[in-house]
Amino acid sequence: MRILVVEDEIKLANATKRALETQKYAVDVAYNGTDGFDMAIGEEYDLIILDLMLPGIDGIEFCKFLRSQGNHTPILMLTARGQVSDKVLGLDVGADDYVVKPFSFEELFARVRALIRRPKNTSDTTLKIQDLTLNPRSFKVARAGKIIELSTKEFSLLEYLLRNKNTVLSREKIVAHVWDYDADVLPSTVEVHMKHLRDKVDAPFDTQIIKTVRGRGYTIRMEK
Fold first, then answer.
1. Which residues pair with 135 in a beta bridge?
2. How many helices (H) and strands (E) does the chain have?
3. pLDDT tens, 102-114?
4. Res. 223 pLDDT band, cuts 50 70 90
5. First CA to last CA across the chain, in angstroms?
6. Over the stretch 32-52, which tens digit does the pLDDT of each residue have?
7. Which of 17, 23, 35, 202 could form a cystine bridge with 30, CB 3.0-4.6 A?
8. Crossing angle (nearest 10°) for helices 33-42 and 59-68
9. Paired strand residues for 99
């Protein structure tokens, strides 16, 4: 899952990026509203964490402009203000939730998980298909009761496949959601990581659930 953090307090922005990366998210950072908006409309994100008070385009205008472009990426707004009117205004212009500074990272993680789940209408934390389960909170992956150890990128790949199961995902979409903007992704990068993932998730078992769709990409689906 890929997140954009738009925050002009550089220390807070970088600390938030590092904290989210411990939760296995790919994270990009913009330090002003103008750069953040350009990134939001030019790249694909699963969530935007947006400060209310920003140089360039402020958080309110950011939300208005983004929604007017037909972009419905979930937005979690950060604000140092505690007044109800500011929270209501943010929600009215298109934000999905808010966190008041100062906040704990545990609270931030919980709100991020809730917003990323929401578009899929998923009430259960655990993602599953057949005998494979993945828990985004504990980072535990198991198949047929056997724990599977995955690298950070392998875990992110599997989570993205599971959140979009039965959907063919192109290599471009996978890169856009699993790697951050500054990552040096070679043409073979997705194939290499996917092979390593399959070696752990599919190879030791009788049924293969990660499929290559020639010329289109990858999908995870149940056998019919």
1. 140
2. 8, 11
3. 899 999 999 998 8
4. low
5. 28
6. 999 999 999 999 899 999 999
7. 35
8. 20
9. 78
Q: Where are the alpha helices (DSSP H) in 30-143?
A: 33-42, 59-68, 84-92, 105-117
Domains identified in the chain and CATH numbers: 2-120 (3.40.50.2300), 127-220 (1.10.10.10)
Distant-in-sequence, close-in-space partners of 133: CB < 8 Å, separation ≥ 6 = 126, 127, 140, 141, 142, 143
Per-residue model confidence as pLDDT tens digits over 112-158: 988 987 544 444 578 999 999 999 888 899 999 999 999 989 999 99
**Cα(115)–Cα(70) distance, rounded to whole angstroms?**
18
Buried b (16+ CB within 10 A) or exposed e, 206-222: eeebbeeeeeebbbbbe
Total residues belonging to the chain: 224
3-state secondary structure of 133: strand
Say whether the peptide bond before residue 102 is cis (omega within 30 degrees of 0).
Answer: yes
**Measured distance CA(142)–CA(147) in Å, rounded:** 4
